[in-house]
Protein backbone atom coordinates (compact mmCIF):
# COMPACT_ATOMS: atom_id res chain seq x y z
CA UNK A 1 0.00 0.00 0.00
CA UNK A 2 2.78 2.46 0.89
CA UNK A 3 4.86 1.60 -2.17
CA UNK A 4 1.83 1.82 -4.44
CA UNK A 5 1.15 5.26 -2.95
CA UNK A 6 4.78 6.26 -3.60
CA UNK A 7 4.39 5.26 -7.28
CA UNK A 8 1.20 7.29 -7.46
CA UNK A 9 2.88 10.37 -5.94
CA UNK A 10 5.82 9.99 -8.34
CA UNK A 11 3.32 9.97 -11.20
CA UNK A 12 1.84 13.25 -9.99
CA UNK A 13 4.97 15.17 -8.95
CA UNK A 14 8.00 13.19 -10.14
CA UNK A 15 10.79 11.84 -7.96
CA UNK A 16 12.16 15.33 -7.27
CA UNK A 17 8.80 16.39 -5.81
CA UNK A 18 8.32 13.17 -3.85
CA UNK A 19 8.44 13.63 -0.10
CA UNK A 20 7.80 11.21 2.73
CA UNK A 21 5.10 13.62 3.91
CA UNK A 22 3.30 13.43 0.53
CA UNK A 23 3.37 9.62 0.59
CA UNK A 24 2.29 9.54 4.22
CA UNK A 25 -0.61 11.85 3.34
CA UNK A 26 -1.59 9.54 0.48
CA UNK A 27 -1.92 6.54 2.81
CA UNK A 28 -3.12 8.33 5.94
CA UNK A 29 0.02 7.91 8.04
CA UNK A 30 2.35 10.34 9.74
CA UNK A 31 5.70 10.95 8.01
CA UNK A 32 7.57 9.61 11.05
CA UNK A 33 6.13 6.16 10.36
CA UNK A 34 7.74 6.21 6.91
CA UNK A 35 11.02 7.47 8.35
CA UNK A 36 11.01 4.53 10.79
CA UNK A 37 10.24 2.05 8.02
CA UNK A 38 12.40 3.39 5.14
CA UNK A 39 14.86 5.75 6.81
CA UNK A 40 14.71 8.36 4.07
CA UNK A 41 13.23 9.30 0.72
CA UNK A 42 16.04 7.36 -0.94
CA UNK A 43 15.22 4.31 1.19
CA UNK A 44 11.61 4.57 0.03
CA UNK A 45 12.70 4.85 -3.62
CA UNK A 46 14.97 1.80 -3.29
CA UNK A 47 12.14 -0.17 -1.65
CA UNK A 48 9.81 0.86 -4.49
CA UNK A 49 12.37 -0.21 -7.10
CA UNK A 50 12.97 -3.53 -5.31
CA UNK A 51 9.23 -4.24 -5.05
CA UNK A 52 8.66 -3.33 -8.71
CA UNK A 53 11.40 -5.75 -9.76
CA UNK A 54 9.96 -8.47 -7.54
CA UNK A 55 6.44 -7.96 -8.92
CA UNK A 56 7.73 -8.07 -12.49
CA UNK A 57 8.71 -11.72 -11.94
CA UNK A 58 5.04 -12.65 -11.42
CA UNK A 59 3.80 -10.34 -14.19
CA UNK A 60 3.80 -12.98 -16.96
CA UNK A 61 1.68 -15.43 -15.04
CA UNK A 62 -0.88 -12.81 -14.01
CA UNK A 63 -1.19 -11.61 -17.59
CA UNK A 64 -1.40 -15.09 -19.05
CA UNK A 65 -4.12 -16.31 -16.69
CA UNK A 66 -6.70 -13.79 -17.83
CA UNK A 67 -6.19 -14.16 -21.59
CA UNK A 68 -7.20 -17.04 -23.84
CA UNK A 69 -4.44 -16.28 -26.34
CA UNK A 70 -0.70 -15.68 -25.86
CA UNK A 71 -0.81 -12.72 -28.25
CA UNK A 72 -3.72 -11.15 -26.37
CA UNK A 73 -1.73 -11.68 -23.16
CA UNK A 74 1.24 -9.95 -24.79
CA UNK A 75 -0.90 -6.94 -25.74
CA UNK A 76 -2.29 -6.83 -22.19
CA UNK A 77 1.25 -7.01 -20.77
CA UNK A 78 2.34 -4.09 -22.97
CA UNK A 79 -0.64 -2.00 -21.84
CA UNK A 80 -0.25 -2.92 -18.17
CA UNK A 81 3.47 -2.13 -18.20
CA UNK A 82 2.63 1.48 -19.05
CA UNK A 83 -0.61 1.77 -17.04
CA UNK A 84 0.80 4.21 -14.48
CA UNK A 85 1.77 6.55 -17.32
CA UNK A 86 -1.71 7.41 -18.56
CA UNK A 87 -0.95 11.08 -19.20
CA UNK A 88 2.08 12.72 -20.80
CA UNK A 89 2.85 14.39 -17.45
CA UNK A 90 2.78 11.07 -15.59
CA UNK A 91 4.96 9.57 -18.32
CA UNK A 92 7.48 12.39 -17.83
CA UNK A 93 7.47 11.94 -14.06
CA UNK A 94 8.07 8.19 -14.29
CA UNK A 95 10.72 8.79 -16.95
CA UNK A 96 12.49 11.06 -14.44
CA UNK A 97 12.53 8.12 -12.02
CA UNK A 98 14.02 5.94 -14.78
CA UNK A 99 16.75 8.56 -15.22
CA UNK A 100 17.59 8.08 -11.53
CA UNK A 101 17.64 4.30 -12.13
CA UNK A 102 20.22 4.77 -14.86
CA UNK A 103 22.65 6.72 -12.69
CA UNK A 104 22.26 5.15 -9.24
CA UNK A 105 23.86 1.67 -9.00
CA UNK A 106 21.38 0.34 -6.44
CA UNK A 107 18.33 1.59 -8.32
CA UNK A 108 19.86 0.39 -11.61
CA UNK A 109 20.14 -3.15 -10.26
CA UNK A 110 16.38 -3.25 -9.65
CA UNK A 111 15.49 -1.51 -12.92
CA UNK A 112 17.62 -4.01 -14.82
CA UNK A 113 15.91 -6.92 -13.03
CA UNK A 114 12.53 -5.49 -14.00
CA UNK A 115 13.68 -5.00 -17.60
CA UNK A 116 14.96 -8.57 -17.82
CA UNK A 117 11.76 -9.96 -16.28
CA UNK A 118 9.73 -8.09 -18.88
CA UNK A 119 11.89 -9.48 -21.69
CA UNK A 120 11.50 -13.04 -20.36
CA UNK A 121 7.72 -12.60 -20.13
CA UNK A 122 7.53 -11.25 -23.69
CA UNK A 123 9.71 -14.09 -24.98
CA UNK A 124 7.63 -16.71 -23.15
CA UNK A 125 4.42 -15.31 -24.62
CA UNK A 126 5.90 -15.24 -28.12
CA UNK A 127 7.10 -18.83 -27.71
CA UNK A 128 3.61 -19.80 -26.53
CA UNK A 129 2.14 -18.02 -29.55
CA UNK A 130 4.33 -20.10 -31.87
CA UNK A 131 3.36 -23.31 -30.04
CA UNK A 132 -0.33 -22.34 -30.23
CA UNK A 133 -0.06 -21.61 -33.94
CA UNK A 134 -0.74 -17.88 -33.57
CA UNK A 135 2.73 -17.04 -34.90
CA UNK A 136 4.46 -18.86 -37.73
CA UNK A 137 6.68 -21.78 -36.86
CA UNK A 138 10.31 -20.76 -36.99
CA UNK A 139 9.66 -17.14 -35.97
CA UNK A 140 12.76 -15.71 -34.29
CA UNK A 141 11.04 -15.08 -30.97
CA UNK A 142 14.22 -13.83 -29.28
CA UNK A 143 14.64 -11.07 -31.87
CA UNK A 144 10.90 -10.34 -31.79
CA UNK A 145 10.98 -10.08 -27.98
CA UNK A 146 13.78 -7.53 -28.17
CA UNK A 147 11.86 -5.55 -30.80
CA UNK A 148 8.59 -5.66 -28.84
CA UNK A 149 10.28 -4.55 -25.64
CA UNK A 150 11.98 -1.64 -27.40
CA UNK A 151 8.73 -0.81 -29.13
CA UNK A 152 6.84 -0.59 -25.84
CA UNK A 153 9.28 1.97 -24.41
CA UNK A 154 9.54 3.91 -27.66
CA UNK A 155 5.79 4.01 -28.18
CA UNK A 156 5.35 5.53 -24.73
CA UNK A 157 7.83 8.27 -25.50
CA UNK A 158 6.37 8.96 -28.95
CA UNK A 159 2.85 9.11 -27.52
CA UNK A 160 3.94 11.47 -24.72
CA UNK A 161 5.45 13.76 -27.37
CA UNK A 162 2.75 13.79 -30.06
CA UNK A 163 -0.22 13.06 -27.75
CA UNK A 164 -2.28 11.34 -30.44
CA UNK A 165 -4.83 8.85 -29.16
CA UNK A 166 -4.42 6.96 -25.92
CA UNK A 167 -1.32 5.11 -24.87
CA UNK A 168 -3.11 1.71 -24.74
CA UNK A 169 -4.39 2.23 -28.31
CA UNK A 170 -0.93 3.18 -29.53
CA UNK A 171 0.72 0.23 -27.80
CA UNK A 172 -1.80 -2.23 -29.20
CA UNK A 173 -1.38 -0.86 -32.73
CA UNK A 174 2.43 -0.77 -32.55
CA UNK A 175 2.81 -4.30 -31.18
CA UNK A 176 0.24 -5.67 -33.63
CA UNK A 177 2.07 -3.99 -36.53
CA UNK A 178 5.47 -5.39 -35.60
CA UNK A 179 4.04 -8.89 -35.17
CA UNK A 180 1.80 -8.87 -38.26
CA UNK A 181 4.40 -10.34 -40.68
CA UNK A 182 4.81 -13.27 -38.28
CA UNK A 183 1.13 -14.09 -37.76
CA UNK A 184 0.33 -17.64 -38.77
CA UNK A 185 -1.81 -18.06 -41.89
CA UNK A 186 -4.18 -20.07 -39.65
CA UNK A 187 -4.78 -16.88 -37.63
CA UNK A 188 -5.50 -14.67 -40.63
CA UNK A 189 -7.97 -17.01 -42.31
UniProtKB/TrEMBL annotation:
Residues 19-38 bind DNA. It comes from Microbispora maris. This is TetR/AcrR family transcriptional regulator. Signal peptide: none annotated. Residues 1-56 form the HTH tetR-type domain. Keywords: DNA-binding, Repressor, Transcription, Transcription regulation. InterPro entries: BetI_C, Homeodomain-like_sf, HTH-type_TetR-like_transc_reg, HTH_TetR, Tet_transcr_reg_TetR-rel_C_sf.
Amino acid sequence: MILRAAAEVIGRVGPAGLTLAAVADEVGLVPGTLVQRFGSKRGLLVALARQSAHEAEAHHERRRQGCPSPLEALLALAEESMALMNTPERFANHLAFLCMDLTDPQLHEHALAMHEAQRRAILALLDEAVAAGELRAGADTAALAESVQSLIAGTGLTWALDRRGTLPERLRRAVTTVLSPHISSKETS
